């Protein structure tokens, strides 16, 4: 990006919520401090403060794709809502240079009583398009959403998948200058997710600024030019070394998960430690063991009981998940069979939500009795 034109600038952004223990405390907070001020007494507070965001600052340049990662409750969605203008910050300011199209929540911006067609025109007008412009783009939106005759039905009758299909189609087909996506694609099927990512690739090539919040670190690695790491409402990392940020984040999550399992019978502190970017990078050097998420399918004639993946030097992949180009990996499987199998075939594939990126078939010519 030679021009370095700023698309979004965030300065000292914070968001504080007032948390009340009981409904009546909200009423007390409205009246009692006023009476106490009249009586010249010290005002009492009936709430506790919860800071969803604390002093966040960064700039995003036009054409950049930014990935934001962090645990649930880290403040990612709050940040995006304030960038879009749907939440007012407690302190700080945001400057946006460009038309924003945002997919923040499932069904956000849709009137459930209106048909899909009506909502397309409603959203388009909110985004500043004229009826003629929406008319010109309507067929491409309809083709992308691929919901057929449901476009003429009230959206309250839609499934979650149909909601996100139409919502993303509207936001992505109007050629936005800034596209913001917050985990909404997670409810779509694999085919639609692939279509969405292909569209995002096209927008990226056109120079659209993209901000994506997702727990799919593969998507961050594939598309992001920079990665923002958030924890407890604070920005603790901002780096163009996306791979380092993702590996550090995943290692940190594994360590926290292991720590939670070790302390399952002990009270859990409400305070989560905040890691600096140096500590995040240091986490790449740590090791941890974790259970593998299983997705089993098939007839059960043969069952993979165990498997391991090691590097050429014997190091387990789990201890050092970074694989360099040309590096060899060794897969070992323990398979139990229920009946004789001739010419068995063992397949290995590594894939992401966007589609398969690597696959290898190993043909084992054997007879098992």
TrEMBL record:
Q: Does the keyword Aminoacyl-tRNA synthetase apply?
A: no
Q: Which SUPFAM superfamilies match?
A: P-loop containing nucleoside triphosphate hydrolases
One MF term in GO for this entry? ATP binding
Specify the protein name: Teichoic acids export ATP-binding protein TagH
Q: Name one cellular component (GO) term.
A: membrane
What protein family does this chain belong to?
A: Belongs to the ABC transporter superfamily.
Give its E.C. classification number: 3.6.3.40
Please state the gene responsible for encoding this protein. tagH
| High-level lineage | Bacteria, Pseudomonadati, Pseudomonadota, Gammaproteobacteria, Enterobacterales
Q: Which UniProt keywords apply?
A: ATP-binding, Hydrolase, Nucleotide-binding, Transport
């Amino acid at each position: 990006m030679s021009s370095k034109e700023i698309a979004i600038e965030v300065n000292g952004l914070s968001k504080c919520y007032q948390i009340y223990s009981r409904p009546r405390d909200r009423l007390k907070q409205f009246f009692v401090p006023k009476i106490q001020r009249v009586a010249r007494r010290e005002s009492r507070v009936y709430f506790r403060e919860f800071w969803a965001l604390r002093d966040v600052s960064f700039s995003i340049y036009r054409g950049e794709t930014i990935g934001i990662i962090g645990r649930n409750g880290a403040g990612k969605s709050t940040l995006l809502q304030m960038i879009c203008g749907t939440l007012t910050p407690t302190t700080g300011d945001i400057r946006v240079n460009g038309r924003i199209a945002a997919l923040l929540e499932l069904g956000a911006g849709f009137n459930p009583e209106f048909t899909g067609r009506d909502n397309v025109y409603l959203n388009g007008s909110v985004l500043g398009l004229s009826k003629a412009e929406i008319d010109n783009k309507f067929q491409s939106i309809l083709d992308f959403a691929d919901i057929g005759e449901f476009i003429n039905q009230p959206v309250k009758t839609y499934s979650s998948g149909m909601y996100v299909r139409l919502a993303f189609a509207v936001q992505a087909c109007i050629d936005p200058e800034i596209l913001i996506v917050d985990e909404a694609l997670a409810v779509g099927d694999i085919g639609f997710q692939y279509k969405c990512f292909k569209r995002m690739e096209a927008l990226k090539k056109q120079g659209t600024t993209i901000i994506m919040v997702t727990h799919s670190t593969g998507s961050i690695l594939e598309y992001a030019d920079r990665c923002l790491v958030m924890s407890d409402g604070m920005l603790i990392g901002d780096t163009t070394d996306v791979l380092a940020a993702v590996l550090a984040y995943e290692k940190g999550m594994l360590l926290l998960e292991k720590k939670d399992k070790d302390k399952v019978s002990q009270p859990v502190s409400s305070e989560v430690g905040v890691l600096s970017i140096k500590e995040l990078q240091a986490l790449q050097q740590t090791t941890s063991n974790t259970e593998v998420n299983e997705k089993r399918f098939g007839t059960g004639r043969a069952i993979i009981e165990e498997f391991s993946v090691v590097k050429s030097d014997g190091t387990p992949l789990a201890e050092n998940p970074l694989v360099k180009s040309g590096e060899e990996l060794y897969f070992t499987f323990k398979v139990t069979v229920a009946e004789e199998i001739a010419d068995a075939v063992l397949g290995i594939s590594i894939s992401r939500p966007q589609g398969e990126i690597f696959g290898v078939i190993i043909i084992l010519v054997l007879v098992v009795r």
